[in-house]
Design brief:
The complex is a heterodimer of chains A (327) and B (117). Chain A is an alpha+beta fold and 327 residues long. Helix content of chain A is 43%, strand content 16%. Chain B is built from four helices and no strands. The model of chain B has no long low-confidence stretch (mean pLDDT 94). Classes of the chains: A alpha+beta (327), B mainly alpha (117).
Chain lengths: 327, 117
């Protein structure tokens, strides 16, 4: 197949959006991000600004799961970009080479964590954001697992450890933390539910009034809902702030708001276990990202530099576990 | 370590490139280039610190591994996973945390100021 030119890709996106929404006009089409398996565009359809995500065939993650979970989240009262259309393209009908397109309503606001944490615009929003994140997360966990098709049960700690073993880079600190996680695993969760999987600043849209939408559901899976609370407290997601909950609040504020909305009494030590699990998971992701560079898959000094951030995660593990080791 | 090379030293060469990035490239760069230039200047600063601190750190790391009877980190990681060091885990943790602090002294010394919350 001949390489698609920029203008033919442009025309194709316009065509797909027009067909899937039955739109009269598609204007101001701009590509926001591009990648090997997925691209994001924005445009104005009959006067309404939308976000268009296109996935190529054979991509690792099935976008139909994301469309399904976004619809279920909307129904459960989670602030999310509303799904306007999800279309899977038949490769035999001349639509590119297959793949899928997800069109959602555009939600205005900021996603960059450092701006949300530092810009004056968000000063008032920061005061209530930890509680808002707690309440919205309680609604995420209200999604009934049987309302979403295609979600699988994942233990992220085990999944990433297998990847680390494949890479073959030794990390004594990770072994010590893995051993602690194994020996202190909380008794079975009271419920297996829908877990967002990457709930933190960077994956939410915030404006001057506060939380507007929860986005980036690609890592959604079934598991212990406490995983999301622990992940939200991982030090990397404080982006330099001293406040433990998403860099904007205390654990107590987060757990209280989550508890009010869900009726669940949060056990801080269970969340702490998931936080340690999250630090380890993020550390292993950093190793994998640096490996993407050293193995030659993508040559990038930015990915290479991430390899030297792994020791931050190791230090976070020792700080979190100081006083919690029992053997 | 005696080297045959002329001045400047490797550390001084890296420093010169980092200074050029910070002085001439980063101000006025487009946002995406500015970000990648900042990453690059951080990378060069890591190399400068590793050149300075590396030899003493290598000696300290050798001594830590000797205390545990291990040839390298791969053997240590495998021994921890196999449970071979279960009788002396407090000592192992203390030595491994010391290595982590040495890594941070090169990679991001400011991170050592972070306290447990």
């Amino acid at each position: 197949m001949a390489a698609a030119t920029e203008s033919s890709v442009h025309d194709e996106v316009v065509g797909v959006v027009r067909d899937s929404l039955g739109a009269r006009s598609v204007a101001e089409l701009v590509r926001l991000t591009g990648g090997a398996s997925r691209e994001t565009w924005t445009c104005v359809v009959d006067g309404l600004r939308v976000v268009v995500q296109r996935q190529r065939p054979g991509a690792e993650r099935d976008m139909s799961v994301e469309a399904s979970v976004l619809r279920a989240a909307h129904a459960a009262g989670v602030p999310v970009p509303e799904v306007l259309a999800y279309t899977e393209h038949d490769p035999d009908e001349g639509n590119d080479e297959g793949g899928a397109t997800l069109v959602t309503r555009h939600v205005a606001g900021e996603t960059i964590a450092r701006k949300i944490l530092r810009d004056d615009t968000y000063a008032a929003a920061r005061g209530t954001l930890a509680a808002e994140l707690g309440r919205a997360l309680a609604r995420v966990h209200r999604i009934r697992a049987d309302q979403v098709s295609g979600l699988v049960e994942i233990d992220p700690t085990i999944a990433y450890r297998e990847r680390l073993d494949e890479i073959g880079e030794p990390h004594p600190a990770f072994e010590l933390a893995s051993q602690w996680l194994h020996e202190h695993r909380p008794s079975a969760p009271t419920s297996v539910g829908v877990v967002h999987g990457d709930y933190r600043l960077g994956n939410v849209i915030v404006d001057a009034d506060g939380l507007q939408a929860v986005i980036d559901w690609e890592l959604a899976h079934l598991g212990d809902p406490m995983e999301d609370l622990g992940w939200l407290c991982v030090p990397a997601w404080r982006f330099g702030s001293r406040l433990p909950a998403a860099g904007v609040g205390t654990r107590e504020q987060l757990f209280a708001a989550y508890g009010e909305e869900s009726g669940v009494v949060v056990d801080p030590e269970v969340v702490r276990w998931w936080e340690v699990s999250g630090i380890l998971r993020w550390g292993m992701i950093c190793v994998a990202q640096a490996h993407t560079h050293t193995s030659g898959v993508v040559r990038s000094h930015e990915l290479a530099a991430i390899g030297r951030r792994v020791c931050e995660n190791e230090h976070d593990l020792f700080l979190a576990l100081d006083g919690r080791w029992t053997t | 370590m005696t080297m045959p090379h002329d001045a400047p030293t490797a550390a001084e060469l890296v420093e010169a490139v980092r200074e050029w990035l910070e002085r001439d490239v980063m101000p006025g760069a487009k946002p995406v280039n500015g970000f990648h230039a900042r990453v690059a200047s951080n990378v060069l600063a890591i190399v400068e610190r590793e050149i300075e601190l590396g030899p003493a750190q290598a000696e300290r790391h050798r001594r830590r591994l000797d205390v545990l009877g291990m040839s390298d980190d791969a053997e240590l990681a495998a021994a921890i996973r196999a449970g071979d060091l279960d009788g002396r885990l407090a000592e192992v943790r203390s030595l491994v945390w010391d290595s982590v602090r040495d890594k941070l002294l090169v990679a991001n010394p400011r991170y050592l100021d972070r306290d447990e919350d």
